[in-house]
Write a structure and sequence with these properties.
InterPro entries: SVIP (IPR031632), SVIP_metazoa (IPR055366)
Helix content: 55-70%
Largest sheet: none
Structural class: mainly alpha
Number of strands: 0
Strand content: under 5%
Protein name: Small VCP interacting protein
Pfam families: SVIP
Keywords: Lipoprotein, Myristate, Palmitate
GO molecular function: ATPase binding
Radius of gyration: 27 Å
Shape: elongated
Length: about 70
């Protein structure tokens, strides 16, 4: 018959350390996020380059300040 508890002479199997368990869970979460971010994208490197270019352009626009008076109406 099946037993729910180990025999008194047997010791319980070792449980993983909490820090080890947390590290494994964090790695798995990062891997899932990375996979989800790249889902449907064939060339992730080009997408990353375009994103950086866009951020750089937005920073330049923000740094230049408001447009001068007398612009387009």
């Amino acid at each position: 018959m099946g037993m729910c508890f180990p025999c008194p002479g047997e010791s319980a199997p070792p449980t993983p350390d909490l820090e080890e368990k947390r590290a494994k869970l964090a790695e798995a979460a990062e891997r899932r996020q990375k996979e989800a971010a790249s889902r449907g994208i064939l060339d992730a490197q080009s997408v990353e380059e375009k994103r950086k270019k866009k951020e750089k352009l937005e920073k330049q626009i923000a740094a230049s300040g408001p447009p001068p008076e007398g612009g387009l109406r």
